[in-house]
Amino acid sequence: MSPTFSQFAGYPDFIYGFSGRSDGSMHRHLEKENREKYFKTLGVDSGRVVTADLIHGANVVGVSGQEGGIMVTKTDGLVTDTRGLLLTATAADCFLLYFYDPLKNVVGIAHAGWRGLLAGIVENTIAGLTQSFGVAPQDLLVSISPGIRGCHFEISPADKEKFKEYSQFVLERSGKVFVDLPGILRIKLLDKGISAKHIEDSEICTHCHEKEYFSYRRDKPKDVQVQIGYIGLI
Ligand SMILES: [Zn+2]
């Protein structure tokens, strides 16, 4: 069940999406067959798929036709202006951010869990888009995938310190501590010059929606089960 983003409607030049539980797990190392099947239904040759081999860090890589079909190691963000490439990343509670500049025809995807978020994945993805492709932040459309939200993203009281710059997004309920990660995401996007009207959030919590999505925190599976997100110029 892929969320639809109204700000992306009306642009025929690119495709984007986010898989659901019914599509099966899309883990980049464990589910090769299922991924092939999924890309086939999208009508995309797997030789055109670029995969971020996530490390919950803040590294962003610009890719071109040469990277088609490969896994880009040690990276959580991908950006490109090459047509026909599908940029992909996976998540099972973390957020995926979709970036599209309809003027310059540039796309990006970023995987943002709490570690990457605090390490600067949002800032680095925007820098990758502006520095490599001359994108102006105010032209960028940014959409936020389903992910674990303030209703369910609990942290240990000891970890509160890590979020001290973002205390307005640290929520205390019945002696437990939760963090509103999309709230932090939004602040970071605004700080980098993204226009508020160009930020669209799916507002879906993966943990709340058991029928539709895998959630690592909720399911605690032996082998991690994940959604895949993709964006590409066509
Ligand atoms: Zn929830």
Q: State the separation between the terminal residues, measured CA to CA.
A: 22 Å
Query: Largest sheet, described in full?
Result: 6 strands, mixed
Q: Using the 3D structure, state the CATH architecture.
A: 4-Layer Sandwich
Q: What is the H/E order?
A: EHEEEEEEEHHEEEEHEHE
Q: How would you describe the overall organization of this protein?
A:
The protein is an alpha/beta fold and 234 residues long. It has one domain (11-233): 4-Layer Sandwich (CNF1/YfiH-like putative cysteine hydrolases), CATH 3.60.140.10. Helix content is 19%, strand content 26%. The protein has five helices and 14 strands. The protein has helices at 32-42, 114-119, 121-133, 181-191, 216-219, and strands spanning 14-18, 49-52, 60-62, 71-72, 77-80, 86-91, 95-101, 106-112, 141-144, 154-155, 170-173, 176-179, 199-201, 227-233. It has a six-stranded mixed β-sheet. Bound molecules: zinc ion. Residues 149, 151-152, 205, 207-208 line the site of zinc ion.
